[in-house]
Design a protein that fits this description.
The chain is of the alpha/beta class. It has one domain (about 5-135): 3-Layer(aba) Sandwich (Rossmann fold), CATH 3.40.50. It has helices at about 15-25, 50-65, 80-90, 115-125, 130-135; strands spanning about 5-10, 30, 40, 40-45, 70-75, 100.
Amino acid sequence: MTQKMILVRGLPGSGKSTVAHYLVGFDFFHYETDQFWIIDGEYKFDMSRIKEAHQWCQDEVRKCLTNGFSPIVSNTFTTQKEMMPYFQMAKEFGIRPQVILCQGQFGNIHNVPTDALVRMVERFEYDLPELWSML
């Protein structure tokens, strides 16, 4: 099987995790930063550890690729900068990632504050020329 990488992006409540869970049945391992916050079965977000959470997710994806498997990563990925580590990994492993943009409005299950959602909308980059040009 040829290794693949799928990146699922979108605002909170857009359907990212649902899409990722559906695709897991097609030989993908699912990772998202939100998994870092699950402690004893409960979601416990701590903004002071956000960098650690993103690094954890990147490390898990790297392990997956190193072991010859295909990752699907669902995160907000509002900017090219946030996606860059995954594109760099994809390039390193000779993979051209697929990017899926979710735009549903299914409700914000993690209670992200409205002002944070507004900031995400304002910085969301739809075009990704810098990322595609590096492959």
